[in-house]
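Posting this for the archive.
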Amino acid sequence: MKGALPFLAMIVSQVSQVGLTLAGKKAIQTGMQNFSYVFYSNVLTCLVLLPSAFLIHRYLCVCVCVLYLNPTSILD
């Protein structure tokens, strides 16, 4: 299962990209301005990506600190 994770992530990425394209096409066809669509999609992206970036950064910092500060890891 762990080997299939990158493929699953790529499929989810492609499906979400197609969904965003279809939603944008429908929103612009119904009368939404191009600039307001771009603004709202960027706001939504920031709300999704910023928290995940902080969580990933904190996890990586903890892993690196444990690796470098643990004296037994040098002997392994």
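The helical segments are 5-29, 34-69, 71-75. The chain is about 85% helix and 0% strand.
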